[in-house]
């Protein structure tokens, strides 16, 4: 959970960058994508880590770059094409490993899942490009950090999961008083959505025994933060703007 909290703080910090462009958010997301690319294969025990990491980085960075120019629209138009291209690259990467490569079929599924996660991270860049999104990013960040801190407690998941989600919702609602642009209901929804992502992924990690090495642990913390990018963008677009 430490890497998840650090990644969240970086996202929040980028939203305060003294510029009207989204390049600060883009830079932070690319750094997170690099961490995902380095550790995704290790997290899932996949042998073809290098090619898989390159695919994730290309798909995620491409989606984030496209989000700068198109993120102000009502839909994430760049999402589907980038996911499709990334899945195709993941499939080709497994073909190039040859018939002797281990876990080629599993590698395609692992790559496709990683591509989706990487592309969802572009939501943070698109959100930053709206020009008035700092309050939403901060509210989401507070909720995510709260859920992450609860997730760091070594209690049974049947206690941590609901407690982390409740804390995220409450922190989202409370933090709405800091910003006039974010009403109570959208803040509660934002806390509920982002908190659910954090505690759900924590539950998956616990059920699988946790990451096997440091690279996997870093990727494990980055995954829910990237996914929350798209969730925060949708809440902003549907309930706040």
Summarize the main sheet.
none
Q: Tell me what portion of residues adopts beta-strand conformation.
A: under 5%
User: What class, by secondary structure content?
Assistant: mainly alpha
Low-confidence stretches: none
Radius of gyration: 17 Å
Shape: globular
Question: Mean of the pLDDT scores?
Answer: 87
Could you estimate the helical fraction of the residues in percent?
over 70%
Order of helices and strands: HHHHHHHHHH
Number of domains: 1
Number of helices: 10
Keywords:
single chain, 241 residues, mainly alpha, transmembrane helix, Permease, membrane, transmembrane
Please describe what this structure looks like:
This protein is mainly α and 241 residues long. It has one domain. Helix content is 78%, strand content 0%. It has ten helices and no strands. The chain crosses the membrane at residues 24-43, 50-72, 78-96, 108-127, 133-153, 160-179, 185-205, 217-235.
Topology of helices and strands:
Elements: H1 2-15, H2 23-44, H3 49-70, H4 79-96, H5 104-120, H6 122-129, H7 134-151, H8 157-175, H9 184-207, H10 214-240
Helix pairs in contact: 1-2, 1-7, 1-10, 2-3, 2-6, 2-10, 3-4, 3-5, 3-6, 4-5, 5-10, 6-10, 7-8, 7-9, 7-10, 8-9, 9-10
Protein name: Permease
Keywords: Membrane, Transmembrane, Transmembrane helix
Transmembrane segments: 24-43, 50-72, 78-96, 108-127, 133-153, 160-179, 185-205, 217-235
